[in-house]
Amino acid sequence: MDNKKLKRIFLLFIMLILFIGVACAGDVSDASSTSDDTVDDSTSHTNTEKVGKKYDVTNYDTLHAALTNDDYNNVTVNIKSNIALKGNTTISESIETLTINGNKKTVNGNGTSQFIKISGENIITINSLTIINCNSTYGSAIEKNNGTLTINNCAFINNAAKYGGAIDNYKGDLNIIQSNFTSNKANENGGAIRNYGETLIKSSSFSNNRAEYDGGAIYNEEGDLTIQDCDFNSNYADDDGGAIYHDEDILSVEACQFKNNSAYDDGNTIYADYSTKITNSRIYDSSDELDESVYRSGTVNIINTIINGENINKTDNTRIAIKASNSTPTVDDEVTITATLTDLSNKKLANQNITLRINGREYNLKSNANGTVSQKYRITMGGLQNITAHYIGTDSYNKSSAKLQINAKKSSTKLTLKLSQTRAEVNEEVTINATLVNQKNMAIAGKDITFTISGKNYTAKTNANGTATLKHKPTALGTNKITAKYVGDNTTYTSSQATANLNVTGRYDTKIMIQASTIAPLANTRITIKATLLDQNDNKLYNRYVNIKVDGDSYTTKTNDDGIAAISYNMTNVGVNTITAKYGGSQYYTPSNATAKITTRAKSGTNSKVDTRIVLRVSDTSPPLNRPVTITATLTDQNNNKLTSQNITLTIDGGKHVIKGDNNAMATYNYTPRTAKNMTITAKYGGNSIF
Questions:
Q1: Where are the beta strands (DSSP E) in 80-217?
Q2: Which of 266, 250, 210, 200 is nearest to 230 (CA)?
Q3: Considering only CA atoms, which of 241, 194, 183, 195 is closest in space to residue 215?
Q4: How many CB atoms within 10 Å of residue 305?
Q5: Residue spans of alpha helices (H) in 333-441
Q6: pLDDT digits (tens, 9 = 90+) for 119-145
Q7: Of 161, 321, 467, 529, which has fewest CB within 10 angstroms of its CB?
Q8: Backbone dihedral region of 441: left (phi > 0), alpha (psi from -120 to 50 degrees) or beta?
């Protein structure tokens, strides 16, 4: 082959290699431009960096999936339509940076769901979104426990939570810009926002938000809060701070407008319990004095601010610090409350009038050389103890106030049980004393003590010495366990109990009741006679011998499981027949006996019926006019056996009334006299074939 041909083959080979390289490069470029993910090919196999992701969402399921996916660390969510929430969503901690573009759409919690919960170190931005009708315990729209959150051009409407009606920022940074909070509610603090982090709010508005405790619009504690160029209108707190409640760290309010905000207790507009600065703002509410609009218990500087028409420039130059000798006392402990008044250079202010208010009780005191007042106070109820110190001020020093809350624990109690004797006979009276004291061994009066003896409960109240007394007659032989118990209460005392044993000896009393199948049999008719044997507690005594006699005829038989000894007897003697039943007793039971009489009738002649009698009674024989009286007629036979369900005719001042007797053979009628005169009442039983 010549040299020219070799050169042509070599050139073709080089061109083929270049063409293949260009084709491969074109394939790579086309593939990367169509992907929604950003991929670094050099690291895709080592998993050291996750990809970014964009989502277009139109419903709850796609929104929830996008926010909880762990596969991406840089996520953008575009909300393309209004969304009704079906549950709560906790944002994945794997998402480092998240942007939610609301595109002026609305997320609706339907009164049951929370929008999002932030638990990780996420950096999150929410733009142009309206969030309504959310509900949760913490921050119904947004619950934030960490990270950084920025909110731009959003609206929060009609959301409700226990803490932070719309947003609860527990930790981290929060920035709110050009957003609106309307008609949100907290069952406790922060009608719109509860804040414990570093927060900036700019060019936003708060209207008609409400807190049932503090901070109608905003509750701030343990975090610096800066508010600039914002409007607060018609917010309300059931306790303190109609618009803003501030406690701890620094509050800065700049160029804000406040109108018609109110609080039931202190601070219609702002409650400032710590360092506060208000500049170039306008406050209009129903307050008559500055402290009613801006309640100051911490250091508050007000600069070039109009409050209810008056231009205020005020720098506080005093402060009060309160402390308790015991911050976790127990009921009945004595605690010393100390308040120290200083100026801003920490100079102690002596001989100044300071009012301490402890759980509603006021103490007017004068500071000593150390600027201090103190008051001893005995804790009478558990739970939060509310303490305030107030300095009214002088020409040289501004007034100032401070608050303190300490949580008192319930006092433990001890119950001691003492018996007048530890051995007793059945039915012998025993005195039982239960003495209740607190942890300092002080008597507790006026408390109910429940005594439990043999399954029965008895209640007695402690006296001034803390002692509850019960008089008891034991009915159960052997060892009787006695328990005394105090159940405690919700706020003051814990429960306690004590036990003791009473050894009961002796015998149970018994009784016999006789019943015949008929109380007026015909001669030569066989009847059943039953004797029921019971102990003093009406327990049936079985397998006991009982002797039954009828007119000299004697029969001995055993009681059955129902305590009944029964015989069948032919009544031959016409006239009154006496029946006796006798139990001879035992080691544990006393003897007893009973007697009954029945009349045996002849089958014909004058002895064929049994005589009867009526006892008539009137509840008042000299009643005033128009006052009802009760008339009773009791029907028995000649042997005093009660005749039940028989008709008795009552004649009252000429009027007749037929009344049927009850199970006790009593016919009862209520009558109201309308005329002043003597009246005759008669009762008549017409008899029947037997009586």
A1: 83-84, 97-108, 116-118, 123-132, 135-138, 142-144, 148-152, 155-157, 160-163, 167-169, 173-177, 180-182, 185-186, 193-195, 198-202, 205-207, 210-211
A2: 200
A3: 241
A4: 22
A5: none
A6: 999 999 999 999 999 999 999 999 998
A7: 321
A8: left
Contacts of 156 (CB under 8 A, 6+ apart): 130, 131, 132, 141, 166, 167, 179, 180, 181, 182, 184, 192
- Dist CA 451 CA 436 (whole Å): 13
- Structure tokens that stand for 206 in this block: 């708060």
How many helical (H) and strand (E) elements, i.e. helices and strands, does the chain have? 3, 61
Rounded-to-integer distance, Cα 518 and Cα 525, Å: 10
State percent of the chain over pLDDT 70. Answer: 92
Predicted confidence at residue 16, as pLDDT, reads: 42
> Of the candidates 568, 566, 567, 575, which has an alpha carbon nearest to the alpha carbon of residue 523?
575
Triad 86, 116, 154: Cα angle to 5°:
105
Q: Which of 139, 128, 136 is nearest to 106 (CA)?
A: 128
Q: What is the pLDDT of residue 403?
A: 87
- Report the candidate in 453, 455, 446 with the shortest Cα–Cα distance to residue 486: 446
* Cβ neighbours, 10 Å, residue 683: 21
Q: Is the dihedral of CA 284, 221, 341, 355 positive or negative?
A: positive
459 touches 449 (CB < 8 A): yes
If residue 594 lies in a helix (H) or strand (E), which one and from where to where? strand 592-600
State pTM to two decimals.
Answer: 0.50
Task: Name residues whose C-beta falls within 8 Å of residue 177's C-beta, 6 or more positions apart in sequence.
Answer: 150, 151, 152, 153, 201, 202, 203, 204
Q: Which residue has the higher pLDDT, 669 or 37?
A: 669
Which residue from 298, 241, 302, 242 is spatially nearest to 275, judged by alpha carbons?
Answer: 298
Q: Which of 389, 299, 294 is nearest to 346 (CA)?
A: 299
Q: How many CB atoms lie within 10 A of CB 356?
A: 21
What length does the chain have?
691
The pLDDT value recorded for residue 606 is 57
Reported as type and span, the H/E element at residue 519 is none
Start-to-end CA distance of the chain, whole Å, equals 158
Contact between residue 486 and residue 415 where contact means Cβ atoms under 8 Å apart: yes
Question: What are 513's two structure tokens?
Answer: 């009741």
